[in-house]
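User: I'm new to structure prediction. If I give you an amino acid sequence, what do you actually give back? Let's try with this one:
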Amino acid sequence: MRILEAADHIDDAGVRLTATIGMFDGMHLGHITLINALKQEAQQRGQATAVITFKQHPQQVVNPNGSPRALMTLEKKIEAIRACGPDYLILLDFNDSLSRFSATQFMAMMHDRFHVSTLVMGYNHRFGHERGTSFAQYVEKGRALGVEVVKAPEYLGEHAPVSSSIVRQLIAGGRVEDAMKCMGHPFELAGKVVHGFHNGRGIGFPTANVGKIDPSVILPHKGAYAVMVHVDEAWYKGMVNIGNRPTLDNGDNITIEVNIFDFDNDIYGKPITLHFVRFLRLEFKLGSIEQLRAQLTYDKQLSNTILDSFIKNQPLYYGNH
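Assistant: Good question. You get back a string of structure tokens that encode the predicted 3D arrangement of the chain. For your 321 residues, that looks like this:
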């Protein structure tokens, strides 16, 4: 996959692209349906494929105070798009200038700079500052520029409807298992292991404190979750708590602390990735350290059962287990 940015252009006059456009945040099943339609349309025309997306959410420019948190980092989004196999990724900065482009201006830029001759639009997608434009009007505007505009089929799978907004709401509500069904993959948080309070080891549940997470990415609702953990170049089962740890009186700071099962390596400063598989419980204050230990023992047993079943259905991805 070749990555092009706004300052780039395609020199080969013989190249023609079939392209689609969107944020592709979370790379959910609706996005996969769209990219599959893109590939089919391109194959019929004997053209190369291109995915057009943005480095930042348009709302960060149009409505900074109301901009949603992202479902994945830009780097992870590029990786997920690459896995779908398009020939080109056209990666644009959504800035104030671009926010003022009409649909006609945008299609003209794509046509002139990148030889886009076919545009596959998502089922209910709109672009350009005149977002009230109907699909028929997009077709008409495109025809005047030499761009054929076609509509991709709607995703009608078991978990429809699917959108980034819906997935975002599920994760914010702690419903990570439902979010995974909509995306086709677990929600992911990546960061580095940093020093924490060091209370977990004293009660038999040592934890890695996950810090340096991209602040633009959404956090799941406070509580405990069964997770798959990638660290030291391998996958492990684990459970994570997101919250204030009220039983240990650790104040108001939100922490992300993961207990990695059957693991005792020194990983301070190392990258760590969490895949959220299922919500376990809300965070609540217990009366004593003994009650906390008993609760964590139960959480670990439940997490092992959940994750063993999950891994059985994902043998290639989590293959070291």
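You can read the tokens as a compact description of the fold. Here is one thing that stands out. Residues 186-312 form a domain with the Elongation Factor Tu (Ef-tu); domain 3 fold (CATH 2.40.30.30).
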